[in-house]
TrEMBL record:
<dbReference type="GO" id="GO:0016746">
    <property type="term" value="F:acyltransferase activity"/>
</dbReference>
<protein>
    <submittedName>
        <fullName>GNAT family N-acetyltransferase</fullName>
        <ecNumber>2.3.-.-</ecNumber>
    </submittedName>
</protein>
<dbReference type="Pfam" id="PF00583">
    <property type="entry name" value="Acetyltransf_1"/>
</dbReference>
<dbReference type="InterPro" id="IPR000182">
    <property type="entry name" value="GNAT_dom"/>
</dbReference>
<dbReference type="InterPro" id="IPR050769">
    <property type="entry name" value="NAT_camello-type"/>
</dbReference>
<keyword id="KW-0012">Acyltransferase</keyword>
<dbReference type="InterPro" id="IPR016181">
    <property type="entry name" value="Acyl_CoA_acyltransferase"/>
</dbReference>
<feature type="domain" description="N-acetyltransferase">
    <location>
        <begin position="1"/>
        <end position="132"/>
    </location>
</feature>
<keyword id="KW-0808">Transferase</keyword>
Length: 133
């Protein structure tokens, strides 16, 4: 992530203490292994929100493992986990400079939404996945 953006306060909170800020609140962390080496990660963060159940966040795939559908598999695993606990909507924020990520989110079924406030300076696109359709 730091190759594209500066780390922000909300990043540090989640990444410095994922147990407290993600897992203990009902979220999940997914780690992709390739040849027994961790090469990708993403989080499903439980949201206290009237519209969204979870945020898909902190997705990253090592440059040496890109192009192997690892991001897609991470996203699919997160969506499956959200469905298994009865979630109806997943939210995410990103930046359109990350064209491959935006394309991946669209392939996973996410659609652009507008009008939400964001804690991220870098976020210029917000997307949702409606799991009830």
């Amino acid at each position: 992530m730091s190759a594209y953006f500066t780390m922000e306060e909300s990043d540090y909170k989640a990444l410095d203490n994922p147990k407290e800020h993600i897992l203990d609140k009902g979220g999940k962390i997914f780690i992709a292994l390739y040849r027994n080496e961790p090469v990708g990660v993403c989080a499903l963060i439980k949201m206290d929100d009237p519209v969204y159940d979870f945020e898909l966040a902190k997705m990253a795939v090592s440059p040496k493992a890109q192009g192997k559908s690892i991001g897609k598999r991470l996203g699919e695993a997160a969506i499956k986990a959200a469905r298994e606990v009865g979630a109806s909507r997943i939210y995410l924020e990103s930046n359109t400079i990350l064209t491959p990520a935006i394309n991946l989110y669209q392939k996973l079924g996410f659609q652009k939404v507008v009008g939400r406030t964001t804690p991220y300076k870098r976020g210029n696109i917000q997307m949702e996945l409606n799991l009830t359709q």
